[in-house]
Amino acid sequence: ISIVKKIFLFLQSRLQLHLEKTVIAKFSRIATLSEMRKKELIDYYGINISNISVIPPGVNKDKFKNTNPNKNILNNFNINQNDPILLNVNRQEYRKNLDYLIYEIVKVKKIIPNIRLFMIGIGSQHDHLKLLARNFNLESNIIFLGQVEDVSKWYKVADYFVFPTKQEGFGQVILEAMASGLPSILFKNVKGFTQV
Predict the structure, then answer these.
(1) Total-model pTM
(2) How many CA atoms lie within 13 A of 65 on its CB side?
């Protein structure tokens, strides 16, 4: 990266921070979804602690708990109902670390050839992730469902929920997995998970 580009990026980030601080200073109250984000607002923007409220998201436990498992939906994908099923529900963005998840499926497939990963969500990395899966010959192992209206049935057909993100504001999908009774595989020490 050239020195000119470094200077430009530096100035751009300073200008963005100035604009954010100017806009945020105009609000008398700010709501955020976790204590971690509250601390970031205080540290990064210098907001008075008394002006910030933490309102954590929630889920309708009954919706996820009472959804009946219907493994017949796997037939639409020519998947044996006994195949091990992983589920990822995520915005498919770079910071979500989904490349890592695909690299791990490459390794797992060597031991468990019939492993399946259903990926629900869309985002700027969607096409890249599909190409990565194709390049590793994982089209039959990784199924990209895109945006799904009712995810509760997918939590019920999976064996594990996998969430490889290294940075998260809260992790509502973890609450959904918990409400569904689905064991979750997560990274340790992700700040946003401490309140889940």
Answers:
(1) 0.77
(2) 7
